[in-house]
Amino acid sequence: MPETPPRGAPPSFPLGRLTAIGAVLATLGAGFAYAGGWLSPGRITPGRIVDALSERGGDPTGHRRNHAKGICFTGRFEASGEGARLSTAPMLAAGRYPVVGRFAIGTGDPVAPDASGRVRSMAIRIAAPDGQEWRTGMNNMPVFPVATLEAFYELTLASRVDPATGTPRDPQAVPRFVAAHPEMRAFLGWAGSAPWTPSYAEEDYHALNAFFFVDAAGARRAVRWAVLGTVPPEPRSPAELQALGPDFLGRDLVARLGQGPLRWRMVAQLAGPDDPVDDPTRAWPAEREQVTLGTLVVEQAQPEASGPCRDVNYDPLVLPAGIEPSRDPILLARSPAYAASYLRRQAELGQVPALARGAGAGR
Amino acid sequence: MSGRGFSPLQRGVHWLMAVLILAMLFIGVAMVASASSYVPLVAIHRPLGLALLLLVVLRIGLRWRRGAPPLPVDLPAWQKAAAHASHLALYALMLAMPLLGWAMLSAAGYPVVVVPGFVLPPILPVSPLLYALLRAAHGWLGYLLFLTVLLHLGAALFHALVRRDGVFSAMVRGR
Ligand code: HEM
Ligand code: HEM
Ligand code: HEM
């Protein structure tokens, strides 16, 4: 065998072959552009969702694009061990696990007055010794307003505020949306009737989206978890809350933690056979079995700008083995939207805002 | 060493990685632009990317020990140089991409989950600036890798269909 085989006689001018090569390359390139969404400018990408979230008033630069105003905390999760029969998650085995968390109000404006936050939230990251983590973001309402990504996006667009005037771009947009979306009724019923409290400590927080707990035998059960407050609520009127000043929630938290830790009971509600697993607008019946997973103990608060929660993305799909996501489209959309929001705020904090949208079309 | 062609193992790894890397590039751009498919695609992207890190290390070891057959003697010097430079770029990018993936997740403070229950340690401290830089690098170098693969594929087909000089069959039949 010679070192280099003899050349086959090439055609005098191989136009056909060159065209074929060009066609192969062009097809692959077009496929790549299609996959990356460059050919679908109308698509609701994570980046567009975050663009819309960023336009609801205030300047979110360097902050989360939703739940923008908050306060960090540290504490621990004391697992009862009761969850271990439902899931192999290491932090459900009886024991104590460190927690970094964050309380916030559901706003796009990092300096919004606390009394404007109807929705309040708690996000936690529970760490297991083997490096696995369980992150979850929970809200004080018992149901989510909408059931699909499209509806969420439309509602967010409707909530946009004109930066010049600070008033809604289209004051009729939200009422129009509500009229067309009967699934919002349960949420609106809560927003109109639930008591307003002066404290993060007086609220329950619900994960809303369903997940699956997977036990050692591989059995999967749909669950929704929540943390239930142990401090009796002392409701106030919205006007009374306004009189407490713009930052009463953070002040109240620091004052209470000065007296000692705060506790929440963490429970998992088990779905019945016909309960909706993919729809966070519909609560499951109250009589469904509840398992007490343990106690969340909040020990210390830190300002967000220098606190340990600042660089955490509370992506609800950072899960340990033994907990799996449902197919709920709201849940699945959260992960990429949180990632896009996280990239923006980290790029802004790192003083490289030009990198805030990354390289991808979706960013 | 240089008298032999690519070994069957070298060829096998080349084609396996060719398929997997193209898949990774398509999965990568598709997932970041999709609100509904991101979660299932990332769950493939991460373990596959880390498996490719092991494969590329193996491959570089093979290349080191076994070498590669020489290019045809009548190939113009600039084409030889381009071939060598592009192969070097492909090796460098194949190594850099998974390392960047691992490093950027570390800088963002995510657990680097290979498969549920198995977490790699972080290789960098948590830092907003590092995360922003590495995330951008993972994206732009990903696009550069795709362009380099396109060039490489074009050149391979040029050898196969136009020059018909045995370079293509070196990677198919060994020699
Ligand atoms: C499609 C639906 C949703 C989208 C697009 C969305 C979007 C976002 C974004 C972009 C952030 C900022 C993340 C960051 O920069 O770290 C955020 C924060 C948050 N979201 Fe959502 N969200 C959605 C649904 C939900 C649901 C169903 C819940 C609740 C149960 C929820 C609870 C939270 C909480 C608690 C935070 C604050 C996390 C923290 O304190 O760091 N979100 N959301
Ligand atoms: C051969 C290896 C790899 C290739 C070719 C590759 C390619 C890509 C591409 C093209 C993107 C989209 C970038 C953009 O459009 O901005 C991407 C995103 C991503 N890659 Fe990779 N990747 C590789 C390895 C890895 C590894 C090993 C990890 C993790 C351990 C990883 C994690 C990610 C993540 C998390 C994203 C999305 C980031 C976000 O949502 O902001 N990749 N990758
Ligand atoms: C998709 C179609 C592909 C075809 C048709 C193809 C074809 C070939 C051929 C014919 C060679 C032999 C060149 C020679 O004899 O020097 C080669 C070498 C090589 N290929 Fe590919 N390839 C493809 C994809 C890829 C991909 C995706 C990568 C990596 C990202 C890659 C990386 C390499 C490298 C690094 C070499 C040089 C081997 C060495 O000399 O050490 N190839 N390829």
UniProtKB/TrEMBL annotation, chain A:
Pfam families: Catalase. The chain crosses the membrane at residues 20-39. Its cofactor is heme. Its EC number is 1.11.1.-. PROSITE patterns: CATALASE_3. GO terms for molecular function: peroxidase activity. Residues 27-361 form the Catalase core domain. SUPFAM superfamilies: Heme-dependent catalase-like (SSF56634). It is an enzyme of class 1 (oxidoreductase). It comes from the Bacteria. Keywords: Heme, Iron, Membrane, Metal-binding, Oxidoreductase, Peroxidase, Transmembrane, Transmembrane helix. Has an organic peroxide-dependent peroxidase activity. Belongs to the catalase family. This is Catalase-related peroxidase. It comes from Siccirubricoccus soli.
UniProtKB/TrEMBL annotation, chain B:
SUPFAM superfamilies: Transmembrane di-heme cytochromes. The chain crosses the membrane at residues 12-32, 38-58, 88-107, 113-134, 141-162. It is found in: Cell membrane. Its cofactor is heme b. Keywords: Cell membrane, Electron transport, Heme, Iron, Membrane, Metal-binding, Transmembrane, Transmembrane helix, Transport. It holds the Pfam family Ni_hydr_CYTB. InterPro entries: Cyt_b561_bac/Ni-Hgenase, Cytochrome_b561_oxidase, Di-haem_cyt_TM. Residues 6-174 form the Cytochrome b561 bacterial/Ni-hydrogenase domain. It is a multi-pass membrane protein. Gene3D superfamilies: Transmembrane di-heme cytochromes, Chain C. Its main location: membrane. Belongs to the cytochrome b561 family. This is Cytochrome b/b6 domain-containing protein.
